[in-house]
Amino acid sequence: MSKQVRSSVSRVVLIRHARPEVVVGVPPSTWRLADQSYDDVRRLSIGVRFGSRVLLLASTERKAIETAETLGLGPVRSSGAFDEVRRPWHEDSAGQRGATASYLAREALAGWEPLDDAVSRFDSGLIGAVEYGDVVVVSHGTVMSAGSAGQT
Description:
Elements: E1 11-16, H1 37-47, E2 54-58, H2 62-71, E3 76-78, H3 93-104, H4 115-127, E4 134-139, H5 141-149
Helix pairs in contact: 4-5
């Protein structure tokens, strides 16, 4: 007999962090938001209507936390469940895009977190949020896309 979980979540909104200030030679996990991104995030917050109970979740990376804080929806809960896929960084963007496309096509790549592990990690973070109204998650493009790629 399967156990059902009742949820009072009315909506889950996934937001990719705003554009960071890229610093060559510095790990992307430490990049802050670009100055122009703050206004973009404020406009997004005004344009999307949220309920009175919002759980605001973010990855542990600075750019995601800054994006979540700038939304102005309340306190931010940071969790490694929403961190980007663990992977090596390619300095050239074409190499990074190619590797990411291969990863999302379910190709096993050396040094990359297995896709199913990334999806499970992200899903586990969401499961812990089932008691709230609106849930807003500020995360990263590859890990959020992995959920769709993981569907078979």
